[in-house]
Queue: 2 jobs
Job 1
Amino acid sequence: MTPAISSDAFAPLAGESSTPLYRQLYDRVRASIAAGDLAPGDRVPSARALAKELGVARGTIELAYELLTSEGYLLARGQAGTVIHPALPPAEAPRPQPAAPAEAPLFLSQDTISRPAQLLPFQMGVPAMDAFPRKIWARLGARYLRGMQAADLDYPPPHGLPALRSAIASYLQVARGIDCGAHQVFVTTGYRASLQLAALAVMQPGDRAWVEDPGYPPTRQLLRESGLLPVPVPVDAQGLVVERGIALAPDARVVTVTPAHQSPLSMSLSLPRRHALLEWAAAQGAWVVEDDYDGEYRYASRPLPALASLDRHGRVLYAGTFSKVLFPGIRLAYLVVPQAQVAAFERVARIFFAAATPAITQAIVADFMAEGHFSRHIQRMRKLYAERRAATIVALERGLEGRLRTEPQPGGMHLVLRLPGERSDQALAEKLLAQGMAVQPMSRWWASERSDSAILLSFTNCTTPAQAERLGALIRQSL
Ligand SMILES: Cc1ncc(COP(=O)(O)O)c(C=O)c1O
């Protein structure tokens, strides 16, 4: 067994890089294995020794080692130390993955490359994993599997199972005030697939597209990769500043917006702004993509009707997802398109996305909705989140000893904690990650140069106030 501390994998880490330290180490070890620089059976330095050597927190090294162990690259042998897994044949060593690009966000949903192996406290974008009604789900799933007929083994219809499309249309009518028929609902594998479907069906390369600033990074990335030109438009206490959008890009053909709870600041788009946006879109012939990822979770009052419910000119493409109301691993979402666009979307869906979503998943969700479990689950979650949110705020602010306060918001699944002065939210988020807390730095959400510092933290899985108090204390100590 050769001690491997001399390998390049364990050279000093780049503190100024936007890639988290644990991630740099993880990437390097994998690359060194692939290059044959680290061989199966080689001993890696202990987390304590390496942390000391590199001058970083021990938690940083442990996090990288944990990831590498869970993926089979390392083997912990107790007293005998940790080694490169002896079962890894050098010839078949996996290729190194390219490091995440500098602007890649930390742990965004679907950002599986930089996502930690296990769910960490305060991680954004995930509903309460302990509260999903698994027994009901298992019962419906088993019933469907037992009753499958020959026809159920065929490709599902390209735009989604009729039963699911109509369950979604009925739900939207009641819960979000959207007047649509099942034929306007296109079932997809996630929000990005919905946006891509819209881009292929009605957008043109070179079109200018307003994006909220700050805003959900994958939206602008996907638009850019589709050849569109994202134009960052500021948001204020009333959400997207429509008049600024008109001033900045009056000729835009696309607007992406999160009206229920702006991502990531969580304010709602005010009624006058909603009307102004729809009037402008109708006059300009622009498409408004309404990203309603968490509209159900409002605590100050009943959920607001969707922007699409006010659309009299057929300009809104409504994107909904099951990631927040069921669970993200389900990979199920939908796009509701205006009546006049159905044929154009059907064509594109058939060519590019035909039958992309498994029939089994669609059928179980259709039953889950039709039998009332879906509405009941949402109601229960709304209550649970209101409680967890309140308890998290109290405990976090106790830990902060009054130094900072969370921003009051009407809804959403996370809290925003603004940092004073020039504090780097990124450095703080990395430090907290090394302590096992997966908060997000808001600077990653900004498209423009301006980037106020803030920490974003989800409360949906925060079950013990002590966790939040500890987070508050760690943040306070770093101020
Ligand atoms: C702003 C926003 N839109 C959409 C989504 C949903 O994406 P998906 O359906 O791909 O899970 C998310 C998930 O975190 C989000 O934060």
Job 2
Amino acid sequence: MLKRKMIKNFGWPLKTAMRETEVTRLYPEVMMELPENERGIHELDATTCIGCASCARVCPNSCIEMVHFKFGNPLKNKKMQFPQIDFGRCMFCGLCVDECPVECLKMGKKVVMAGWERKDIVKSPDFLATKRFTAKEVADLEAEAKRVAAEKAVAAAAKKASAAKEAPAKEGAAKKPAKEGAAANGPAKKAAAEAKPKEGGAA
Ligand code: SF4
Ligand code: SF4
């Protein structure tokens, strides 16, 4: 009786060991499959981010801070500011993603954010960026931005100069009819003034 019980007790572990069913995973080397709509660590396309800070303003937990990194497009993002996210406070609501006007921020599939210190879960744009410009590309874009700015300055100066030229001509044109009008009204008014006392005297 005891023998049979012992064999029975060994049977179950043996059966389980023979089965090819995954019971545990070798984390973090083997990750579980995540659902399609998983909201993980954000992904940033630094090449299209305009640094508007809309994501930071809309965040209900104030976990986004705009910080400087030199890997964006200076033509679109003049201050080269990108979102840095504190995942210690983030609740993965996705509001920042919905608010982004150029759709350069999205919820990614990375979920591992463990660290040894509190600051390890504050992820900089350098960590979040999935797309970025190289230093050479940024230098070329900066040269282009300077050229565009210089062109704009020249156009604005030319516009100002032409406006300054046209202003006296316009002023003269505006004053002339007024003077003419005054000259035309002068004798008529005088005649009317002279006629009034005469009328009063007759009565
Ligand atoms: S997902 Fe929500 S809580 Fe997290 S950074 Fe975006 S807006 Fe803030
Ligand atoms: S990620 Fe989007 S909302 Fe945030 S600063 Fe960049 S462009 Fe603006």
